[in-house]
C-alpha cells in the first residue's frame, strides 16, 4: 500500500490557529479515502492532549540523537487517518498558542521545538524505527517542517519529498548562534541549505531541498517567483520553478455544509435560499444589530493583521457605514486594528457589530447570515473563507490576488452582469478601489433575482478536497508506482 507521512504544526480539529490547520485536517483524510496509507505527524501540545479525553496510546520511542521522544497515536476525527503525536516537554508541558504567548510574542524556543519536529519526521521517513513503517512520500508544510526536508535529503535514498508553502511571509528565520545550538549538520549552513543572508531559515531548507514544491493556488505560485510576493525568496523560487506547482486548496464539504451545519439556526441549500434570510435575522439578534432585511449584511471573519487588508478597510470603513448596509466583524490580532475597530463600532452600534475574538461556530453563522463577505487581502496564498462564502451563498468581495482570483469570478455590475460571475473583484490595493467594489456589490444586491442567480452559481462550484487530492496524487505518483 502507498504510504505517506504528512507533517504539520497544526491540524483541525485537534489544534487550529489558521488555514494550515484546515488543510492538514482535510487533505490527509481525502488522500486516505483515495486509498493512501497516511500518517499525520503533529506536536503533542499540552492543550491538544488535554482536549483528547482518553489518553492516546504510546506506540514507540525514538532516539533522535539530541533527544529521546515518544510517539503517541490517536485518530483524526471523522476520518480513518492515524495521527502520530510527538511527545516531548517542549510541546506537552506548555499550554496556550503553539507559536506565541498571551501577549503575541513568539515563544523563545520555537527553533528548538520545530527542529525537534523536523528531526522526528526525517527519522521516521528515512530510518528503521520501532514504528516499523516508512513512507514512500514525506510531505511537509510551512517553515516549521522545512528542516525535515533537508535532513531527509542528507540521508540519501529516501522518500519523495514534497514541501508545501502555505504563507511565505512566515519563514522561521533565526540567527547563526541558534543554528549552532540546534546541532544541525554543518553542511546545511550553505546557500543550497538553510543559510539566508547570514541567518538560518527553516523555510529555505524546504524550498532548497524538496523534490517538489507546492503552494496553495496557481496564482500564488506565480506571485512568489517575483518581488514583492517572493518575500526575498523569489530568486531561489525562480531557479526551482520547474519543481513548483500551484494546487488550490479544497474545503471540508462536511464541516462546511449549509444544509447540515449544526451551528446554524436554520439549514438551507441552493434550492431553499429563503431560509438564509432566517439565519440573517438570527445573526442580527445575536450581535445586537437591528433586524433589517432591507439592507445587506456584510461579514468579515479573520485575523486582524495587515495581510488581511486592514490598511485598505479602515480608511473607508466609515464611508461604508454610510451605505445602506450593516457589518459583522469577527476576529482578533494587531492591537492597533482592534482599537480602531472598537472606536468605530462604539460610534456606530446601529451599523456594525464587532467581536474581538475567534469563535468557530460564530464564523459559520456569519458565513450563513451575511449577504456578502469581505476579503480585501493584500496577499492571499489561497484563502478558505471565500470558498466557504461561495458554498454558503454569500458572494465574496475580494482583491485579485493569489487563491482569491483563482476561485472568485467577477460579477460585473447590476446593469451589465457577468453570466459566470460569483462575486466582486477589485485589483489595486487602494482603499478607494475597495470602497467602489463594496458599493457595486450593495447596489447589485438590490436586484434580488440577479442576486439569487449569483448566489446559486457560487453554490454550484466544486471546492471539495477530492479534486485537490487527485492533483496531489499525481505529484506522488513517481514514488507510488
Features:
2 domains; 18 helices; Rossmann fold; 481 residues; alpha/beta; nine-stranded mixed sheet
Your description of this structure?
It contains 18 helices and 18 strands. By secondary structure, the protein is an alpha/beta fold. It has 2 domains: about 5-250 and about 465-480, 3-Layer(aba) Sandwich (Rossmann fold); about 275-460, Glycogen Phosphorylase B (Rossmann fold, 3-Layer(aba) Sandwich), CATH 3.40.50. A 9-stranded mixed beta sheet has the order 3-4-5-2-1-6-7-11-12, sandwiched between helices. A 6-stranded parallel beta sheet has the order 15-14-13-16-17-18, sandwiched between helices. Strands 8-10-9 form a 3-stranded antiparallel beta sheet. α1 packs across α18, α4 packs across α5 (about 145-155) and α10 (about 275-285) crosses α13 (about 360-370). The radius of gyration is 23 Å and the shape is globular. It starts with a strand and ends with a helix. The model has no long low-confidence stretch (mean pLDDT about 95).
Amino acid at each position: 500500500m502507498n504510504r505517506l507521512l504528512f507533517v504539520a504544526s497544526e491540524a483541525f480539529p485537534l489544534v487550529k490557529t489558521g488555514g494550515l490547520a484546515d488543510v492538514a485536517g482535510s487533505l490527509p483524510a481525502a488522500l486516505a479515502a483515495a486509498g493512501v496509507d497516511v500518517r499525520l505527524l503533529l506536536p503533542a501540545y499540552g492543550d491538544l492532549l488535554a482536549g483528547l479525553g482518553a489518553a492516546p496510546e504510546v506506540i514507540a520511542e525514538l532516539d533522535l540523537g539530541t533527544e529521546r521522544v515518544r510517539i503517541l497515536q490517536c485518530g483524526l476525527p471523522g476520518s480513518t487517518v492515524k495521527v502520530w503525536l510527538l511527545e516531548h516537554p517542549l510541546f506537552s508541558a506548555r499550554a496556550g498558542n503553539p507559536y506565541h504567548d498571551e501577549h503575541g510574542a513568539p515563544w523563545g524556543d520555537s527553533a528548538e521545538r520545530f527542529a525537534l519536529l523536523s528531526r522526528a519526521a526525517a527519522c521516521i521517513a528515512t530510518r528503521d524505527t520501532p514504528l516499523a513503517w516508512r513512507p514512500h512520500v514525506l510531505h511537509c508544510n510551512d517553515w516549521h517542517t522545512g528542516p525535515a526536508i533537508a535532513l531527509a535529503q542528507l540521508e540519501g535514498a529516501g522518500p519523495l519529498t514534497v514541501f508545501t508553502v502555505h504563507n511565505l511571509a512566515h519563514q522561521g528565520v533565526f540567527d547563526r548562534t541558534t543554528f549552532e545550538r540546534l546541532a544541525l549538520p554543518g553542511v546545511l549552513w550553505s546557500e543550497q541549505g538553510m543559510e539566508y543572508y547570514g541567518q538560518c531559515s527553516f523555510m529555505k531548507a524546504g524550498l532548497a531541498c524538496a523534490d517538489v514544491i507546492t503552494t496553495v493556488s496557481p496564482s500564488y505560485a506565480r506571485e512568489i517567483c517575483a518581488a514583492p510576493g517572493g518575500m526575498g525568496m523569489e530568486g531561489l523560487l525562480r531557479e526551482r520553478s520547474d519543481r513548483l506547482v500551484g494546487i488550490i486548496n479544497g474545503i471540508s464539504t462536511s464541516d462546511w455544509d449549509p444544509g447540515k451545519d449544526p451551528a446554524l439556526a436554520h439549514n438551507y441549500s441552493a434550492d431553499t435560499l429563503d431560509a438564509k434570510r432566517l439565519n440573517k435575522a438570527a445573526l442580527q439578534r445575536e450581535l445586537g444589530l437591528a433586524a433589517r432585511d432591507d439592507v445587506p449584511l456584510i461579514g468579515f471573519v479573520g485575523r486582524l493583521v495587515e495581510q488581511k487588508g486592514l490598511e485598505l478597510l479602515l480608511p473607508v470603513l466609515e464611508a461604508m457605514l454610510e451605505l445602506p448596509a450593516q457589518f459583522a466583524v469577527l476576529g482578533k490580532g494587531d492591537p492597533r486594528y482592534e482599537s480602531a475597530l472598537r472606536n468605530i463600532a462604539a460610534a456606530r452600534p446601529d451599523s456594525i457589530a464587532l467581536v474581538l475574538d475567534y469563535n468557530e461556530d460564530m464564523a459559520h453563522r456569519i458565513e450563513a447570515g451575511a449577504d456578502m463577505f469581505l476579503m480585501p487581502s493584500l496577499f492571499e496564498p489561497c484563502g478558505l473563507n471565500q470558498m466557504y462564502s461561495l458554498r454558503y451563498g454569500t458572494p465574496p468581495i475580494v482583491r485579485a490576488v493569489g487563491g482569491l482570483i483563482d476561485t472568485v469570478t467577477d460579477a460585473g455590475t447590476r446593469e451589465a452582469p457577468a453570466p459566470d460571475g460569483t462575486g466582486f473583484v477589485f485589483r489595486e490595493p487602494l482603499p478607494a478601489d475597495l470602497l467602489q467594489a463594496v458599493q457595486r456589490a450593495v447596489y447589485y444586491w438590490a436586484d434580488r433575482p440577479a442576486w439569487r442567480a449569483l448566489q446559486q452559481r457560487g453554490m454550484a462550484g466544486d471546492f471539495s478536497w477530492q479534486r485537490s487530492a487527485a492533483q496531489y496524487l499525481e505529484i506522488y505518483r513517481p514514488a507510488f508506482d
